[in-house]
Structure formats: structure tokens, C-alpha cells
Amino acid sequence: MRNNYLFLLLFTTMGFTQYSPSAPWKVDNALAKKEKLTLEEEVALFNEYWTTRDKNVKGSGHKPFKRWENYWKNLVNEQGYIISPTQFYEAWQEKNNAKKNSTVNSRFSLPVSNWQPVGPLTHTNTGSWSSGQGRVNVVYQDPNNANTLYIGAPAGGIWKSTDAGVNWTPLSDYLPQIGVSGIVVDHTNSNVIYIATGDNDNGDSYSVGVLKSTDGGTTWNTTGLTFTTTNRTAGDIIMHPTDNSILFCAASNALYKTTDGGTTWNIVRLGNFAKGSVRFKPNDPSVVYAVTNTSFYKSTNTGSTFTQVTSGLPASSSRLRLDVTPANPNYVYILSHSFNEPANNGFQGVYRSVNSGDAFTLRNNTTNVLESNQANYDLALAVSDTNAEEVYTGCLNIWKSTNGGTNFTKLNNWSSPTAAAYTHADIHFLKFYNGNFFCGSDGGVYKSTNSGTNFTDLTATAQISQFYRIAVSKQSSANMVGGLQDNGGHAYSSGGWKNYYGADGMDTAVNSNDPNAYYGFIQYGGTLYLSNNAGNSRTGSVSAPAAETGTNDDGGNWITPLRANNSGELFSGYERLYRLNGSSWVQQSVGTIGSGNIENIEVSPVNDDIMYVSNGASLFLSTNRGINFNAVYSASSSITSIECHSSNSNIVYITTSGASGGVFVSTDTGLNFNDITSGIPNIGKNVIVHQSQNTDNPLYVGTSLGVYYKDDTMSSWEPFDTNLPNVSVTDLEININDAKLIAATYGRGIWQTDIPVQVPNDDVKLVQIQNPVTGINCGNNVNPEIEIQNNGLNPITSVTFDYTIDSTPYTYTWNGNLASSATTVVALPSVTIARGTHVLSVSSSTTNDAFPDNNNGEKSFIINDSGTIGVVNTFTNASDELISYNEGSAGSQWVRVIRSDGSTMDSAGNSVYSTSASGNYPDNTKAYLVSQCYDLSSVSNPEIRFSLKYDLEENWDIVYVEYSTDFGGNWNVLGTSGPNWYNSNRTNATSGTANDCQNCPGAQWTGLNTTNTSYFYPLTALNTETHVIFRIVFHSDQSVNNPGANVDNFVINGVVLSSETFALESIAVYPNPSNGLYTVSTKNQQIEAIEVYDISGKNILNQNNFKSSNEIMLDLTHASNGIYFMKISTDVGSITKRIIKK
Length: 1142
What we know:
Layout: H1 39-50, H2 62-72, H3 85-105, E1 116-119, E2 124-125, E3 138-141, E4 149-153, E5 157-161, E6 169-170, E7 180-185, E8 193-197, E9 210-213, E10 221-222, E11 234-239, E12 247-251, E13 254-258, E14 266-270, E15 277-281, E16 284-291, E17 296-299, E18 307-309, E19 319-324, E20 332-337, E21 347-353, E22 361-364, E23 380-383, E24 391-394, E25 398-401, E26 409-410, E27 427-433, E28 436-441, E29 444-448, E30 456-457, E31 467-472, E32 480-484, E33 488-493, E34 496-501, E35 505-510, E36 518-522, E37 527-531, E38 540-543, E39 562-564, E40 570-573, E41 577-581, E42 584-587, E43 600-603, E44 611-615, E45 618-622, E46 630-634, E47 639-644, E48 652-656, E49 663-666, E50 674-675, E51 685-690, E52 699-703, E53 706-710, E54 718-719, E55 729-735, E56 740-745, E57 750-754, E58 764-771, E59 776-778, E60 781-782, E61 785-790, E62 796-805, E63 808-818, E64 823-827, E65 831-832, E66 836-845, E67 856-864, E68 883-886, E69 895-898, E70 911-914, E71 926-930, E72 939-951, E73 958-964, E74 972-973, E75 1008-1018, E76 1029-1035, E77 1044-1056, ...
């Protein structure tokens, strides 16, 4: 409900939150038996358990705890316990009171936020091996209307669809942050909805008991079931099929029953039922079944009392799920898991009762249907509502039995996202409604109408993603990339989201000088994934530094920090600071920094040499670009974020951990800090950002309850959250060009709002470097073109440009008249430079320039030579060298070398370009060998030809050729497989169960050919292009490497036409074939006569004296269908064209 007082009674006593007591590291552990545990004790138990186990096994159960720990670690009190619901409610109430007081008192002019959702509402899979959008705990179909569906998310609340899952609407955004794990709708009145709140599978949010709506979910009220401690969760909630006043709710302390529609609830059986199931017997609601983690119970008096049934069931279990079916009301199925069973990941078996739960028989305990050891996190069971022998289990994937559980077959695979039966990994929910089969997993909600043969993803428009971090491009808020819980990296560009890698997406970055260059970590910084096209594909990966990894150690923290500086350099934090260099991390810092892993990295926007990192409560400063660090400050608790002032390098801000953590500012580079927390309640302060180009110095803090704002005109913080759901904000980014603040939330995706813009009297803004282009520039003359904007109120009459090309300084002054808000492009003097990679850095300034932080721009570009048709490049001399580079770096795997290592790539004394000077090529490498620029517009029958031999891991490592006609802006694969070109057309999609060729474009060389072979391909499709560039691509995968490939004798062949011949060749006749009406078109020639002959040589048409001599219409409709020859005579000669009349 949107009125704030509703939950006051809900949060009445001090409590505590702890991780699931059934987790394997808590079984038979004395510390775990304590009444309550601090977060530190929870982590200690977990770490002790995993010292002897492999955490990287898929579905090991390691990641769910790390997600839980990361969420709650900033919500602990001073004693180390997670704050109670009472404290959380008080913070929420304090926030709402502050908003009311701000409105009433109007003490100052607080900027108004207008938060709007950015998504992901839907996404395209462009490289993820396990694409998805957000976790779903429960799916419910309205018993009165099959088109009305509900889903419950662990931190995104309850959502409703009235069109069978095509569109979703949130129903709980303005409640205190909740998850939903159980839903039921009154079968007599669809406006009455009950929800069991919280996250019963992993504790991602508080549970506030059972809530009830009587208006279809528009508002919510508390019921009589409220929890008095925060270690309570709730799961299944069911309603009596004929008496809507009777409901059962499975909670972590007991099974509850109400007989008055939720006004009062009574415990009918003690035990942890939250992760179990509760069901009515079909056609006989006097019989009720329920399971805890360890036991099965049956009632024959509508749940007034329950009796434990043990016949045929395991003596002890770790988690049970049950289901029933109207196809045979006497059947009861149970799925059992035990951490004490080492075989088959603890799968104890599927059991069936044929006598309404009085006794059970084992159906199967040998098929590894769990495939993982994470049943504590997700376990699901469903029986078809039309076939009592059809049973489904879910843990990592979905398995199906058609003979009552005796035999199972796997329906899908979490790493095959293009398969028809795909659902994302980690199955939390399975259920049939009216013959339709629904699944809730870590990736979303799925529906099958054919018993699991095909699934349709229904998650679109449900914005339930749990983001860890977000990065936004400096140039535009339309380019951003973020990391999601178990759904990898999601990239935003061109108005859409792309899921370009899998796993848990963590910290991300966008290259400061290239808005399309995205970077994203997975958990522990184990792998960095790159995209150079704004997420449209995954174009590279970089493993964690070897010095940072070891046995069961993937590298850094769960969230390993990434940060890009203004120069486009990318840094990561492990125990040491690293800088990305091509396809590897290079150590930047001298030794380790503090004790343990780096948690935060910040680079001053004013000076790339000034960097801060934090480790625990310690803050470190570097003034030489991260090479040396000095400890400058020790906070009272761990530092959660660092932010440098946008124009003053002496000012730095930090936030600290814990509900009582604070916000602090230093004006002396971190030596001393002042507390500026006033106005923010005792909740987690996750991140702080500073807005540039505003003399009031606006600041924004993302907290566990939304966003707060403060500037120099204010003494305390105020909520800045109009339209923003009550959800934890995990990251904030500002794009000052668009005046947008972007927020990442843990449960409701990405949001953005306008922020206050200050217009100064005088300010020039460098918008972009238009020329040279970022890609490959043909020719040695560089003509820099700079777009600037008058960002102030007064006209600008003069702008000074101080710029360097590879550190060589230049100065130019533009004079003119630029009105306020107007833009212009300034052409700087031409500079002649040699072939290779160069860097242009530009700084613009004007008189009384207000904001120097918007004056600078930098661009890396390549200068390329022009190639000559017919000249063979043997790569013998240094002057024969080509441009080559690795993905994301100036370094190159392609090297010009006389290879003599005795391998299959030995070059027999000849100079070649090879993928390695000796030995095998490395893993995870994508390298380009770039040709010169060619003008094919006056070339007849052009072709590309070169010698190649190769020894590559077949169907994994590849070589292919691409071409570009727009200076490297876009690249296309050249040609298809054939006898004179590629030897493979295989793709990952066509590889079937082999699941190989993951980098294959479908046209490549792969495998083994150690004979130097001349390959060629016709270029007739490009003979109108004036600037064609080719590049030979080498791409290796993540493991297994071979000697590689050699390229030699590169040439573009063809006949260079004379100007007369070229002019005649350019004459066009179209359409051809035609029904008899033809157009003859020339560029500059004068057509004097046209003659047409049939195949026997008989002349059928003569025309001359044309009114227009450049474009002529001919009518041959009178002629018979067939082939003819048209002779076209011009002032420079004649040419004959073959035409077809049809």
C-alpha cells in the first residue's frame, strides 16, 4: 500500500537475518547452532567449508551465498548483525518524513527527480552462454482468468500480466523493499490476492509475512501473519478450493493456517516449511500434504492437525519438494536431496505414493537429475495435471519422466541458449496450470505448451534484473553496460539491451574515448569480457593475472573493481593494481596494496596520474598513475565507494559500510575527512557521485532505500527518488552531456533521471573529434576536425586549440562568432605523419572559460598506406610491413618473421607474417593483419590472393578475412567456403552436441594444412569502391593451442582500366533481365547510337539523335523473349552489353 503507516505493526521487535540454516556448511556445526550469527560468523562458516571444496563446479552452491553476503554486508549494525526489520522500517519512515518536511517547509529549492525505467525490459543474446534477465521465484495463474498471470521476484516484488505474459506491470514498487515467493488469488474474486513475502530460496530481501490486496494489487495490507524476527521467510501459500477463507502458508518456522481470510493465523505444525511445499489433495481438500526440509506430513482434517509419514521415505534429508496431480488424486510425488549423500550431487531419489501419502516407494535414485550440489538454493518438482506418470524435476536444468519417475531424460541444457527447450539455469519453480507448464529460474519465467519440448521466454517487460554495477559512456547515456546476478553482462546501445556474456556479471567499464568499447568482469575478476561494438557481440576475453590466482582462487573479490581513466586506459584491482594491455593484465602498482584485495578504484577526472584505491577501511593515494601508493586515511569501517571531485583534484569523497556508516569529504587529497552524512538514515550507503559543471557541487548517494541528494546550498541530504521504486541502489553514474543520472538497482534494473543543469556566462565545450576517424585513415595527411559547442550564454568569438599528435605540440586559434548553444566544426591545419597507430589529444579554451573539464578530447587512430594493384608483398623488408594489432591493444600476435622453430609453421627461410615467432600461439587472442588501402573503382576483375598454411585447433581456433569500405567503421567477412578459399562453413549453431566453433563466423580456415597454398577470391562485388581495406583475422579460444598460421605473397590483382575503358565499363543497362523496357545510363559520356542484335546477329533496333545523351529509355517489348546484345556507341568508344528479355 502506498500509505506509509501500514507496516508499522509489521516491524515490532528486534530481529536478525541469517543465511539458510540448511546450508551444508551449517550442518552439524557448533557455531551454526547459535541463536543468531553476526555476518562475520556467517562468512567464517562458509569460508571454512569451502577451503577443501571446488567452488568453480557449476551449481556447487558457492555463488548463492556470495550473492547473499554481498547484498547484506552493508546493512549490519555496530555489533555486526544484519539490521532488523524495525530498523529498516524506521529508515524508510525517516525517508518519507524527510520528503514531507521538504515539501512543507520549502527551505530550499531541491531539484526534482523524474526517474524513468531504462530496462532491461527485454534483451537480445549476442554472446551469452546462458542468457537471461532476472530471477523468478514463483509463477501463478489466476484461476478465474487464464490470461492473468503473476510472478514473484526475490528483490523485485510481485508483477501482473493480463495478456498471458506478453506485458508485465509491477504491483509493489512503493512498499518497503520486498521479495515474493508465494502467490495465491481468490477463486471467487480475482481482486483478492495474497503474497508470501521475502526470498525463501536465498534471503535476498526481508520477508514481512503475508500481505493481502483486495483491489487487484493496486494497494496492499498486512495480515495476521507477521514475523517477529528477520530470520523468517515464507514460501508456498495455497487456498482451499471451495472455501476462500482457508489458506495455508509455509514459513521457515512453521506451517500456518487461517480460516478467516488472513485476519488471524495459527501454527498447525512447527518446522521449516519455507523451502518445502504444501498441497491440497485434488478433489479432497480435507487432505493436506506438506514437507519441511527433512519430513513429510499429512492431514486428514483440513490441516487442523498433521501426522508425519515416514514409510518408504529417507530417514534424513536436506531438502524435500512435493507435488500432486488431478490426473490421479491418490498420487503424491516427493523429490529428496541430502548433503550427506555423496553420489549424484546428493540426489536421494524421487518417491511416489499411490495411496494419498500413507506410504511411499522409491522410483529413481540413480539418475543425476540435480547435476549440481545447490539444491539448498533451488529445487523444484512438478507433475503434469493431465498425465499422472509425467514428472518433472528442476535444479540446474529440467528433467522429465514419462513413467512415474522410474526413468528421466534431460529436457534442456543451461549453456544452450538457442535450443528450443532452453530455460536459464537454476530452476526455482515448476508447475502446470491447465496443461501449460511454467518454469521460474534465475533467468526469468518460461512457458511450455507441449510438455517441455519447447519453452517460450515470457520475461519481456518484467524489469527485475539484479544489477551489481553499471558503467555509462562519457559521450552519451545511450551507451551503457552493467553486470547482473547470474545473467552476465548486459550492454545497452541503439535503444536495446544485449546479453553479451554469462555467469555473474560484475563491475563494468566503457572506454572513455570510444563509447562502443565495453568491458565486463565475471565473479572474482576471473575473466574480463570485451565488446568493441557496444555489446552486439563478444569480441574478446582476458583471464585474471596468473599472480592473483591459485587453487580455488579465481583472482580478486566477489566484485573485482574496474575503472577507466580519461585516456582510455583500463585498470583492475586484485591484491595489486593492473592495467589492461591488449589481451592481458600488466601489473601497474609496485607490489601489493594493503592487506587483501583492492575493493575500489578511483581516478581523478582532472589528472589521470591521481588515483585512489581502498582496501577494507584503508584509503591509498597514488600521484604517479598507480605505480606507487601511500596510505592516507583509515575509516571507521570498510570504504564502499570513492569519488573524486570533477574539477578540484584536492577534493575526494567516500562512503563507508554498515547501517551506521557515513558519507565523508576531504579537501586535502584524503588526509582528513569531515562527516557530511546528516539527513541519510541508518541504511547502507553504497555509492557516491559528484556532478561536474555546476558551482553548487551536487552530490548523489545510492543507498539501500534509493537515492539522496545534497549540494553546497544544503546542510543535509534529501531524498531524490520521485518515481523510483523502494529498492537498493547499487551503483550510480552521471552523463553530463545528456544531464542524466543513471542508477543500477538490485531487483528493478536500471533507472535514469534528469539532473540540474547550470549554464555559465562563458564556456566552450569540445563535443567530439570528428576527424581523423577512429578506424583506419587512408593516406599520410591528417586533417583534424573538432566539433565545439558554445555551452555558455555569451557569444564566443575566439577559441584556442592546444593539441598534440604523439606528444608533438601544436596550437591553433579559431576566430568567428558562435552563438549560445550553437555548434561548429573547426578544421585544424593538416599534418603529415607516417603509417602506424597515433594519438591525437586536443584541449580547447576560451576567455573566462567556466568548466575546463569539458574542454578535452583524445582519439587513437591508424594511418595506412595506399596499395598498388598487382604488386605482391613478400614481406621481405621493413618497408613491406603491414599494420597489425590485437583486439583492444596496439600489440600484435601477427609478427613479420623468418620462422625457423622446426614446427609445422617453419617458413623455410622466407619472411612471412606468422601468428607466433616460435612455438604455439596463446589462448584467448584475436589478432588482425591489415592490408593497405586499395582503390578498386577502376579495376577490372579484381581478386585477392595470398599464400597460407596453418596448424590450428580444428573447429576452435580459426583464420578468416574481413573487408571494410568505410575506413574500418564496419567489417564484413569476405567470401564463403570453397575449393580456392575457406575450408570450413561450420558455426556453433551447426556444431550440434559438439558445441564447438564458438568463434566461427561460418566461413574460415581451421584444422591442418601445412602446405603453403595460394588462396584467392574474386572481388567483383567491390569494384565500385574507392577505399577497400582487408584484414586477416586470427582468433584462438580459451584453451589448447597449436603452431598457428603463416601468410605470404599478399596481392590484389586486376586490370587497371584506362580512363576511356573505365568510362565505358561504367555504362549501366537496367533492369536486366527486363520485360522489354530498359534504361541506359552513363556518367559523363555522350551516347551517340544504340544497336541491338539477336543471338543470330540480326539487327532488331537502331537508334540515334537522342534528346538526352546520359540516360536513355529503350523499348524492346515487341521482341521475343531471349538473349540479345546491345552495342552502345559513345564519344569515347563503344561497348557491347548482354541483355535478357523475359
